[in-house]
Automatic annotation (TrEMBL):
It is found in: Endoplasmic reticulum. This is Dolichol-phosphate mannosyltransferase subunit 1. The keyword Ribosomal protein does not apply. Its EC number is 2.4.1.83. Its main location: endoplasmic reticulum. Pathway: Protein modification; protein glycosylation. It comes from Pan troglodytes. Residues 28-193 form the Glycosyltransferase 2-like domain. It catalyses: a di-trans,poly-cis-dolichyl phosphate + GDP-alpha-D-mannose = a di-trans,poly-cis-dolichyl beta-D-mannosyl phosphate + GDP. Transfers mannose from GDP-mannose to dolichol monophosphate to form dolichol phosphate mannose (Dol-P-Man) which is the mannosyl donor in pathways leading to N-glycosylation, glycosyl phosphatidylinositol membrane anchoring, and O-mannosylation of proteins; catalytic subunit of the dolichol-phosphate mannose (DPM) synthase complex. The keyword Glycosyltransferase applies. Belongs to the glycosyltransferase 2 family. The lineage of its organism: Eukaryota, Metazoa, Chordata, Craniata, Vertebrata. Keywords: Endoplasmic reticulum, Glycosyltransferase, Transferase.
Amino acid sequence: MASLEVSRSPRRSRRELEVRSPRQNKYSVLLPTYNERENLPLIVWLLVKSFCESGINYEIIIIDDGSPDGTRDVAEQLEKIYGSDRILLRPREKKLGLGTAYIHGMKHATGNYIIIMDADLSHHPKFIPEFISDGVLPCCPGWSLLGSSDPPILASWDYSRGANFLTQILLRPGASDLTGSFRLYRKEVLEKLIEKCVSKGYVFQMEMIVRARQLNYTIGE
């Protein structure tokens, strides 16, 4: 599982960016959810902890697709706990695809950088400051927050390996992992990529990287 940073300009450290525009960078986390009632409080707490300890300006946008397990109720409680300026609940009535969830969330994002990630604890927020500074995130196949590799995670990784293998042969995108969903984008870049993309489901992630390469954006992995 690889992380990706997509931008038009060469990668710069967070310190360099702050020198250029002190304290002006803001990071909007898009967090699509479906039946994440138990995971959501923990992933939000970890995100808040990571951002606060690093002094990073942030907001977390939760896009819940009509979860029947009460995820939306939990999100509403988190919004009250952390404040509506930090936690923004922007729900939808039903599952409409991962791609459209990102589009929906980005409409409400006020940051100039966008972080996309999963809410199922497969992506650990403690690496985000390092990710921001140099675009490198050490994640391993089958890794989860609790250190376990149960069959669903491994099955997902097998699927990803097959999808990446075929894509490398057919499209030559210039990135090794096209299915990973832990990414950092400049907001204006993500907006342009979404305009070009036609996919709505999980293949949306793959198309985004292919489109980014076609548009000559820089991809750090």
